[in-house]
Amino acid sequence: MTAFEFEAELWLYPGKGGWHFVTLPAEVAQQIKFLTEPKKRGWGSEAVIARTGKTEWTTSIFPDKASDSFLLPVKAEVRRREKLATGQAIRIALMLDRA
Description:
Elements: E1 3-12, E2 20-23, H1 26-36, E3 46-52, E4 55-64, E5 69-73, H2 76-82, E6 89-96
Antiparallel strand pairs: 1-2, 1-6, 2-5, 3-4, 3-6, 4-5
């Protein structure tokens, strides 16, 4: 399993739903694009296992044309457990779930 570690700011999507995301750093996004190009999934999403602090969750990252990167959704349960706030820089470990 391919793994990445990085720090990124937690931000709130301005539209409906109150979704919180982190934008993957450009260098991480480029590596993921290279590794996943042959096996693209619907909408360009990629299954991942993410961890911040002691909390791990399964989700997908989604391509973002505005940043030319991927967006990682951070679930409400994760934010509560880890006491995360919008605007906070958080450390993420991300593994591609290529099962």
